Amino acid sequence: MEARLSPTTAKDALAPYQREAARHRDFQGGEMMANVTIDHGTYKQIKHYDRAQMAKFCENLYMQGYNDAKRTDEGVDSEAVYAVIASVRGIGPKRLAAIKGAVDTAFKEETK
User: What is the DSSP string of 16-34?
Assistant: First the structure.
């Protein structure tokens, strides 16, 4: 029989992921962009860009953000997710094993 985590332990295990999800929710709303500042010189340069220069500027800005996100991405700890699922009332060892098998199969197919 598998050991089950208490709901408190399960919540503690997911806390970092909930904070990350909240950060992404804020970003979708655009509130995080209010903290970005552009110095006066850069603003003046951007005002005079033509279409090609603006496209290049946007591409560079996007790639900087993409690389920052890629560098800080920790991924999801599947064992922490399974621990939370196991803490749900009505999920026994057999059902948990079936869920693990389905998830593992889906991710193996996705990475091919």
Answer: HHHHHHHHHHHHHHTGGGG
